[in-house]
Amino acid sequence: MSKAERTIDAIWRIESAKLIAGLTRMVRDVGLAEDLAQDALVIALERWPESGIPDKPGAWLMTTAKRRAIDLLRRNKLRDQKYEELAYHSDLYTEEDMDSSLDGEIGDDLLRLIFMTCHPILSQEARVALTLRLLCGLTTDEIAHAFLAAESTIAQRIVRAKRTLNSAKVPFEVPVGEELNDRMSAVLEVIYLMFNEGYSATAGENWIRPLLCQEALRIGRVLAEIAPAEPEVHGLVALMEIQSSRFKTRVTRTGEPVLLMDQNRALWDQLLIHRGLAALERSQKLGQPYGPYALQAAISACHAKAPEASETDWPRIAALYEALSRVLPSPVVELNRAVAIAMAFGPAFGLQIVDELNAEPSLKGYHLLPSVRGDLLYKLNRFNEAQEEFNHAASLTRNERERELLLKRAAECAVSKKE
Question: Which first-to-last residue range defines the signal peptide (predicted)?
Fold first, then answer.
């Protein structure tokens, strides 16, 4: 991939969700909106390497996609009356700069798109796959890797989901009343996935995608205004606020990952931490037991409150993971609990839990399982085994920065063996 193509790919990952959301508002068909956005990307790949990247690439892509929509509507107007009316009565014919739309309405369009893709007419698997595709900009291959599924299976799932939404004429809007409550759990899950993809990218050259996290956090804050009595909304916002406070320290100036225990906590954003702790308090004051997002926020709060890594309250974190495992049973939660127990009571105790997870089928291709096992083995001076685990983890990850980190840790094991 050339330098120009890498730049265009980075721009696409930043702008694609806004582009698809804005186009969905125009054509009321999420599948068609994605096709139009992809058409604009193809044109950019053809033109930008020669003409250069425009000053406002998002506006350029939107204007280009809008023109493609006009052409399509004109061609199809005799076949489809809905499109004919849209072509004549919407603003699709205008050629003004799209910056104002990108900064204004389209922000709300992203929330509408999330509620649309979280309609109960879709299965949970379809909602997740469609979200990762439309809102996070992942390729079908990357989603398949995350699901440990065949690419063809994921592709069919996404196609069927878009077709189902279009056939059912699901409205492009934020619902109210009971319908809002019915979709809340799915919407929170989607925003959580969106944030996590930005916080630790599934694939690509960068370990983090801060703009994706910022967008997820912005949407979460809007949702907290819409549903102030929902404790888990505030819990998720608290989690995202606190996690976002670490962005300046999560990578070096050259983009290399910095692990939590090695980060300079003096550089953590105290305003975001304060906002996160306040959101967690709002969740608690609603008088309901902590749900999965509030529990994760409480775990993040433990890290945020520790001035130094050595002062972290690991026994409390282990207890919070125990509570999380009861409300959200998951092998991944159990893996995190193993890390907390290792930090609180010693690596041997954590390794015992991790070894039990080795037989878990859903974690077979999950790179963090051998990564955690390698770390615990390293702390127990079992360097040969640790090196094998780090190399195995490196072979499983799709993120280049993470692969480099894991191979570096494997090399450290080789050095430690000689000492």
Answer: none
Rounded-to-integer distance, Cα 139 and Cα 158, Å: 11
Q: pLDDT band for position 97 (50/70/90)?
A: very low
Residue 403 domain boundaries: 327-419
For residues 378 and 417, give the distance between their C-alpha atoms in angstroms, rounded to a whole number. 10
Residue with tokens 């096709």: 35
Radius of gyration of the chain (CA): 23
Cα distance between residue 36 and residue 250, in whole Å: 35
Tokens representing 85 are 């009316």
How far is it, in rounded angstroms, from Cα 87 to Cα 89?
Answer: 6
How many angstroms from the chain centroid is the CA of residue 246?
Answer: 16
**In terms of DSSP bridges, do strands 203-204 and 398-399 run parallel, antiparallel, or are they unpaired?**
parallel
Residue range 330-339: mean pLDDT, rounded? 95
pTM: 0.78
Query: What DSSP state is assigned to residue 245?
Result: T
We report the CATH number of the domain holding residue 400 as 1.25.40.10
Q: Has residue 38 been placed in a domain?
A: no
DSSP state string for 124-179: HHHHHHHHHHHTS---HHHHHHHHTS-HHHHHHHHHHHHHHHHHTT--SS---HHH
What is the pLDDT averaged over residues 190-208? 82
Residue 334 lies in a domain: yes
Most confident of 56-60, 93-97, 274-278, 398-402: 274-278
Q: Are 82 and 114 in contact (CB under 8 A)?
A: no
pLDDT bracket for residue 1 (50, 70, 90): low
CB 251 within 8 A of CB 201: no
Angle between helices 124-134 and 30-51 (to 10 degrees): 20
Q: Does 367 fall in a domain?
A: yes
Structural domains of the chain, count: 1
CA dihedral (59, 64, 67, 69) positive or negative: negative
In a domain, 132, yes or no: no
The pLDDT tens digits for 207-264 are 788 888 888 898 899 889 888 999 999 999 999 999 999 998 998 888 888 999 999 9
Three-state DSSP state, 335: helix
Mean residue pLDDT across the chain: 86
Question: 331: burial class by Cβ within 10 Å (0-12, 13-18, 19+)?
Answer: middle
